[in-house]
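Encode chain A's predicted structure.
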Amino acid sequence: MTARYLVAEALMRVEEGGYGNLVLDGMLKKHTLSPADRAFASAMFYQVLEHRNTLDFILNQFLKKPVDKLDAPVRAILRSGLAQMCYLHTPPSAAVNEAVKLTRAFKKSSASGMVNAVLRRAGSYDLSQAKFKNEIERLSVLGSVSPSVAAHFLRWYPEDAEAILTETDTARETAIRVNTLRTSAEVLENRLLSEGAKSVERCQIPNCLLVQFAGSPADVPSFKEGVFHVQGCTSQLAALALEAQPGDTIVDLCAAPGGKSLTIAQQMQDTGSLTSCDVSENRVSLLQKTLDRGGLTCAKAIRNNAAVYNPAFAQADRILADVPCSGLGILRKKPDIRYKDVSGLAELVALQKEILEQAAACLRVGGRLVYSTCTLNPDENEKQIEAFLQRHPEFTVCSVPYLPAAMPYGAFGAVSVPNHTGMDGFFICAMEKR
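Encoded structure for chain A:
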């Protein structure tokens, strides 16, 4: 199986309802490809997912019937072929020729002439000259998002909408967190370079490194030994906002996959008690493996519904509520979110409210509650906190350490807007109970 065939098949499986990363990972494990072909397949696959709307708009300029009306294999071949030319700098002749070969491999030889003609023309299309019906359609095409997502950002972030939606994950460093229980940033920096990392830079956040790995971070020996874990910068800031202290009793209410729990436990110097929770039993087992890899003894993973009061958490010193959210701050990391309908989020906002209520009930007087999301939606962020404070005058917003200047802390928390901070879209608010 070639890399291009694998990608086309993976794209069809995603259309049938599979999750992008799970589909690709499963196929890469099943089929043997060279390291170079694995990297090429991954890049091609995610470029199609991230830019699907853009690719379809261009293709539709040259098709007699819309892309979504074509046979699934032909649609996948066209999208992946155009993605190679637009985003992977594959020579047009190679991309077109290989696409034509794929039509035969998928027993769609009758479409080979059309695929040849459409890709040759589409590869030279100048998107800057395109005409759009309105601003929502323009943002939907250029940012490759659903009209619903485009309308959301046009409403709440009109000046930043295009920059947010067109941000890509190309050549980004991976943010990691040093396990300070086992090493130092300086020692780990040198070790990563010796293990093949292309570059390692210090971040303004203490014990955070920005690394360009040659392959997957999970394949590096120091990762397997629990010397570091992968965690986005804003996620680290949320964990550090708790200002955990040795000996504290802390609850991480929505902890999976576990990065924040690891950071919190390290701040605690692996003393006291940290309970890391998730509502899914499967995720709890993965969470426990993460804690074990970090060598932690103060932390345990349990199944718990954060929206229901748990008396076992009463009088906690600190609680982190990194709640389920719409994910609109991490579009570049989770391209599936780009195409969702986000016009109706009332049920999600209500769940977040209930989680906040249960956290407030468990926290001791003098304790700290941190609320965070990875979304850019005032209804889930600032407005959620404003309403909470109106219901709970015993809480007051307190400061958060290490925030960059581009992430100002307001009366109801701080928002990381990606094109301002260079980090994920995120929201953080810390509060103390009086």
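Residues 346-362 form the longest helix (17 residues).
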